[in-house]
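Lecture notes, continued. The same structure-token format from the folding unit now serves as the input rather than the output. Read the line below as a description of shape only.
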């Protein structure tokens, strides 16, 4: 398993990156906890994150908080 590391500027201290498991196909994907746009599974297209205006609603299972 390859772990991708990227340098990303985090604008808000409460925002985090989450490792979310797709409920449909089980693929793991890193998503932003305060995403302002819908995030879909790269593999099957299932909606994983729904923006609410504040903290995004995570529709998949959160496996890990990446800080
Ligand atoms: Zn999927």
């Amino acid at each position: 398993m390859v772990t991708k590391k990227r340098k990303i500027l985090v604008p808000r201290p409460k925002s985090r990156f989450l490792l979310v498991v797709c409920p449909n196909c089980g693929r793991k994907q890193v998503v932003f906890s305060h995403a302002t746009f819908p995030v879909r599974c790269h593999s099957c297209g299932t909606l994983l994150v729904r923006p609410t205006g504040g903290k995004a609603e995570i529709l998949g299972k959160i496996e890990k908080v990446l800080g």
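Point for the exam: The radius of gyration is 12 Å.
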